[in-house]
Automatic annotation (TrEMBL):
Domain named Plant heme peroxidase family profile: residues: 136-254
Domain of life: Eukaryota
Lineage: Eukaryota, Fungi, Dikarya, Ascomycota, Pezizomycotina
Cofactor or coenzyme needed: Ca(2+)
Organism: Sporothrix epigloea
Top-level EC class: oxidoreductase
InterPro entries hit by this protein: Ccp1-like, Haem_peroxidase, Haem_peroxidase_sf, Ligninase, Peroxidases_heam-ligand_BS
Entry EC no(s): 1.11.1.-
Name of the protein: Peroxidase
Keywords of the record: Calcium, Disulfide bond, Glycoprotein, Heme, Iron, Metal-binding, Oxidoreductase, Peroxidase, Signal
Family: Belongs to the peroxidase family. Ligninase subfamily.
Signal sequence, start to end: 1-21
Matching Pfam families: peroxidase
SUPFAM superfamilies linked: Heme-dependent peroxidases (SSF48113)
Cofactor binding note of this UniProt entry: Binds 2 calcium ions per subunit.
């Protein structure tokens, strides 16, 4: 089996309102959001993003993305969706990469890139700032000076090297290849390589940030000792509902901690290492956790706080896998698009993903 690490960046949910405007503006944002939540506080967020919010869906991609963001279509694709390379490319095997036919088909180069990703670990960039339209899934993690050196991104240097090596290997076949897309495709590939991992719909076409502009605001990440309220606020400012937050926290089903508690360096957050299952929820909320796991205080808080406890315990039910994986995919899909301005212009390359495998 693959290395278990789906090895994400620790989530970076910066918000400009904290960094750049007054505290009052921040409060106002949260209140507006709270009003929007009335009546649907426990479902996935249905808030539209970027050009879909301002001008609507005007392309087939925009239409699919809109329906997923509004939770009227699933964020997953089943194993019957498989990309096939153009015939002129397919005939040439690995050599097909360097062909006109491949260059003319946006997903073609990705069908080659996923092969090394399928056998490696990857890391997406979540630092994002929707309120001012900077940051987000824009590659800044690797492109902006100093972002990778931040404490919240500790331990990601290897993944960064991997991403940049893929960019170096493949960009001559696809001049528009961006680090922002590599990070996000890496994340969805990594997720589906774990047994139980949803096959999350995957679009490409994110522009990279200009590496010369300063990196996104710092100190805006939830930390392992943040309260549930703080975590919910940070996510809410990025359009996530409480359901989304609780679902996303389930990524810790495949994580390990190293720096949070050095005495237990390497400890996983549930007992089924490398399996993308919902067991994490029951084990995190247990009064007496199983031996060998380390639970983050932030997850413990989410499992007990009045605002999230019932959501958490739904995912802790023995039969919650399907529901959780679907809701995780929906929330992750939103995360993967934050900060991208032209959602109508993206291309669906979901068919290049490895096939999903059930929980053993
Ligand atoms: C709710 C707020 C979150 C907090 C406070 C948080 C906190 C943390 C912490 C403290 C670590 C371990 C760092 C270490 O000690 O080495 C970690 C690891 C990890 N987190 Fe989160 N996290 C959050 C949300 C997320 C989300 C939304 C995802 C993915 C969708 C995610 C995916 C991961 C993964 C995959 C790892 C393991 C990284 C590795 O093994 O290299 N986390 N998180
Ligand atoms: C909740 O529902 C309202 C009304 O349908 C909608 O305007 C709002 O965007 C929704 N909020 C979220 C977070 O889904
Ligand atoms: C990913 O790896 C698995 C196991 O080695 C292999 O069966 C599968 O074909 C690979 N998928 C892709 C898309 O590379």
């Amino acid at each position: 089996m693959l290395p278990p690490s789906l090895s994400f960046a620790v989530l970076a949910l910066g918000t400009a309102v904290y960094a750049k405007a007054s505290f009052h503006a921040a409060l106002q944002d949260i209140h507006i959001y709270a009003r929007q939540q009335d009546g649907n506080a426990t479902g996935p967020s249905t808030v539209l993003l970027a050009d879909l919010a301002t001008g609507g869906a005007v392309t087939p991609s925009g239409e699919i993305i809109r329906s997923i963001l509004q939770n009227t279509a699933p964020a997953t694709v089943d194993n019957s969706i498989v990309y096939t390379r153009p015939a002129a490319v397919a005939n040439r095997g690995q050599g097909g990469l360097d062909s006109v036919a491949c260059r003319q088909d946006t997903c073609c180069v990705w069908s080659y890139i996923v092969a090394p990703m399928n056998t490696s670990v990857t890391v997406p960039d979540f630092a994002q700032d929707g309120s001012v339209g900077s940051g987000g899934a824009d590659g800044s993690l690797l492109l902006s000076a100093g972002e990778l050196q931040r404490s919240e991104n500790r331990g990601m240097g290897n993944y960064a090297d991997l991403m940049l090596s893929w960019r170096n290997a493949f960009s001559r076949y696809a001049p528009g290849l961006t680090v922002a897309d590599l990070i996000q495709v890496g994340a969805t590939v990594a997720t589906v390589t774990c047994p139980g991992g949803p096959r999350i719909r995957t679009f490409v076409g994110r522009p990279d940030v200009d590496g010369r502009i300063p990196p996104p605001a710092q100190h805006l990440l939830p930390s392992p000792d943040s309260s549930a309220a703080t975590i919910l606020e940070l996510f809410a400012a990025k359009t996530f509902s409480a359901t989304d937050v609780v679902a996303l926290a389930g990524a810790h089903t495949v994580s390990h901690q190293y720096v949070t508690e050095p005495r237990y360096a390497g400890a996983p957050q549930d007992t089924t290492d490398g399996v993308f299952d919902s067991r994490f929820y029951a084990e995190t909320e247990a009064a007496v956790p199983p031996a060998g796991i380390y639970s983050f205080q932030s997850d413990k808080q989410l499992s007990t706080d009045a605002a999230t406890q019932s959501l958490w315990s739904q995912y802790a039910q023995p039969d919650a896998q399907t529901k959780w994986a679907e809701e995780y995919a929906t929330a992750y899909f939103r995360l993967s698009l934050l900060g991208v301005q032209k959602l109508n212009g993206l291309t669906d390359c979901s068919g290049v993903l490895p096939l999903a495998k059930p929980v053993p």
